[in-house]
Design brief:
It is a single chain. Helix 2 runs parallel beside helix 8, helix 5 runs parallel beside helix 6 and helix 6 crosses helix 15. The termini are far apart. Strand 20, helix 22 and strand 21 form a beta-alpha-beta unit. The protein is α/β, with parallel strands linked by helices. A 7-stranded mixed sheet has the order 10-9-11-12-14-13-19, sandwiched between helices. Strands 1-2-3-7-6 form a 5-stranded parallel sheet, with helices on both faces. It is 41% helix and 15% strand. Bound molecules: thiamine diphosphate (TPP). Thiamine diphosphate binds next to strand 4. The site of thiamine diphosphate has 15 residues, from strand 4.
Amino acid sequence: MDYAKYDLSDALKLKLYVSMLKPRIIEEKMLILLRQGKISKWFSGIGQEAISVGVTAAMDNEEYILPMHRNLGVFTTRNLPLNRLFSQWQGKANGFTNGRDRSFHFGTQEYKIVGMISHLGPQLGVADGIALAGRLQDKKQVTAVFTGEGATSEGDFHEALNVAAVWGLPVLFCIENNGYGLSTPTSEQFKCEHLADKGKGYGMESHIVDGNNILEVYTKIDALCKSIREHPRPVLVEFKTFRMRGHEEASGTKYVPQELMDRWAAKDPLENYSEYLRDENILSEEQDVVYKKRIIAEIDENLKMAFAEDEVVFDQSKELNDVYKNVDYKSFEPSPVIKNIRLVDAISESLRQSMERHDNLVIMGQDIAEYGGVFKITEGFVEAFGKERVRNTPICESAIVSAAMGLSIHGMKAVMEMQFADFVSSGFNPIVNYLAKSHYRWGENADVVIRMPCGGGVAAGPFHSQTNEAWFTNTPGLKVVYPAFPYDAKGLLATAINDPNPVLFFEHKGLYRSIYQNVPTDYYTLPLGKASLLQEGDDISIASYGAGVHWVLETLQNNKDIKADVIDLRSLQPLDINAVYESVKKTGKLIILQEDSLFGGIASDISAMVMENCFEHLDAPVKRVASLETPIPFAKTLEDNYLSKGRFESVLLELLAY
Ligand SMILES: Cc1ncc(C[n+]2csc(CCOP(=O)(O)OP(=O)(O)O)c2C)c(N)n1
């Protein structure tokens, strides 16, 4: 291996050596503990240490790094206390996740490390968001993110690189090409010769680096970081290396030809480097022994601390409380000055006033800048707030959701407009796995609102009409808001933006331009999780949300003799179930109308909760009215018959007559 051409001081060369030695010795110890059954799983990075160590050493401690499962060297080079790392791997409270997540699935703001989620790809987009935040804050910083060559096949890789390129973000994309993704060789993973070649396709500079040569890694990355700080841009680096052990220890390496193993064993980054240092008289035998002894002593001492720590204790209220970041709700009272506006205007006004109030708020979405969004909600925003804060995005929902998370990690607030709620499926993974779980896992909130123009009755067919709130109410960690009126929409959106947790904000397209209301012109907030009682009556309780509320009111207009409590839920998570209980205790009958198909929807859960908690107050079975169990169709007659609206009245009358 060619070390001689790199002109670094002896002190730095030794520092890099010790930095590689540490993860190697820790791993060797972990492999023993694994065999003894003292830790549960191990993903080995043996043979790849030069990459983690070289990249981390070239970066400033204030710059974010997003490592993967083979990057122990990132954590050790950033000097995380070993006892906490060991506690993390043993699922103990002194780790970084309170025992809630395993291995390297954690982050720490203190060390500017943002760990992976198992799905691999999403963190590439998170790096985009972190880098964007840094640029908006005028920080001359690089964000480095790691991926294996296998994960480059994920759409997230393409999306994240594309966004970084289009937006000129200072991200260092580090691919560790180690030959195999689990058992799949590179020949079955991608067709190009080098992954670095892909840089060209994104209009991005790229480099190939010998990932087993610490001096090459450090020197190249150091130069790149310095250059990126001055001239912000994304750079793709492919590190050629090899995975010397199984994907994880239990899976072995039988499928790897011995010849390949031998060839790469001869290129071991640590052994070759120590030989070079000794040949050059930079490292003596005695000094090497001292280094090793010191590291072993540190490991032993810290392991003792981790083993001495008690197992994590289950405390139900703590578990539940940590799903969301605590919210300090601030009430802003509405002013008396009002204007009669549509739902669409109320949302636009709320968004605009939030942009004025929070100068760290960024809005992202397809066609939202000069064009004003397909529903014109952000019309005029570019003129008011500039293109940096009102960002057109490429068509890549997953990377943008992930970037929103990255913005939040780096101190910003983000609102993302899904062009249509239907398309959220393309950004589903980061929403339910990254944003939703982050606070529970490692205490990092996602200060993100995702606006969801949704709903049927607009003859738009199966892909532009869905109301998919139940995809999200089933996922702990998300908040779901679904207003039916302009007044509520304005105040609730302001609160959703103030809330540090991820909120899905549903906006029914059919209501956008059909529902008017007198709305205060100034900024105000309304609390989440409070239903509104629109009408009072003793005959029956009716609960609904979104367009369903208007269908209920229409039906009651045509049946003036019915005296009903009409409950507009307004937010589904948190859900004001007590408002429903109170009403049911008075009326003894409950009907729930939802626009979505029946099975697994909000109505089912409310029904179950009322059965469980108000059974003795009920005079009749709870009724759910929902749309057909089919996709939502296009043609008007089909759609009219699909939607629950047409069936509501008959079920209501039936229940009243029970
Ligand atoms: C979305 C997703 N699909 C599959 C997996 C299972 N899985 C975990 S790691 C891995 C291989 C990853 O290979 P690569 O990206 O090359 O990284 P390496 O493990 O080689 O470092 C696979 C298939 C996963 N975690 N997430």
